[in-house]
Amino acid sequence: MMRMGTILAAAALGLAALLGVQAASAQYPQPIGGITAAVGSVTVTSGGSTQVSCTVRDASGNALSGRTITFTISSQPGSSATLSTQIATTNSAGTASVTLSVGSAAGTIIITCSGESLSARVTTEVLGIQATAVPPAAAPAIRPPATGDGGLVPQDGSSSLVLSLGLSLVSVLIIARVAARTR
User: Fold this and answer.
1) Which run of H or E residues covers position 9?
2) What is the Cα–Cα distance from 30 to 56, expressed in whole angstroms?
3) CA distance 1 to 109
4) Which CATH number is 32-125's, of 2.60.40.420, 1.10.540.10, 3.40.50.150, 2.60.40.10?
5) With the C-alpha atoms ordered 71, 72, 75, 76, is the resulting torsion angle positive or negative?
């Protein structure tokens, strides 16, 4: 058993075929299939910049050129982030791009691109100013030992007289011993 809707649809198709009715349609501008947003870098150091791109495609996935895209900063930490321009036109690849200067405040920036009644959002994370490592205080200079002092002589030379006397005494003892053996 056929349903009544199926019978009516079959009858309408048969009647259209007998009458030679053909369906054709075109729409200009082409219907938009989608808009996507991308950012050159998902993290940017404070004071840096990155590229923000928006691509427009038709319902068949083909790139649409010559379309006007509006870029806006929807949310930001602080108020110093800026865009190189707010309006850009898509190129032959369907892409429009601007430069985002992230400013000095750390946090998340949300950029919205819109056109042809569609919009897309993308985010980038601003990293705070990176601290550079400060080397520890320099250790006092250690002087290699001079010949004969064994490293025991302070750098200010205060005991050089004691050392000289000690070395002289050792020399006298050695000479005395050698002299005693030779007798």
Assistant:
1) helix 4-19
2) 11
3) 62
4) 2.60.40.10
5) positive
Task: Identify which has the larger pLDDT, 81 or 160.
Answer: 81
Domain limits of the chain?
32-125
Residue with token string 């992230």: 102
pLDDT digit string (tens) for 126-157? 998 655 555 666 555 555 555 555 555 555 55
User: pLDDT of 40-70, one tens digit each?
Assistant: 999 999 999 999 999 999 888 899 999 999 9
- DSSP secondary structure, 73-101, as one string: EEE-SSS--EES-SEEE--TTSEEEEEEE
Report CA-CA distances (Å) from 60 to 16, 56, 92, 125: 28, 11, 16, 33
- State how far the Cα of 19 lies from the Cα of 118, in Å rounded to an integer: 41
Tokens standing for residue 179 = 């002299």
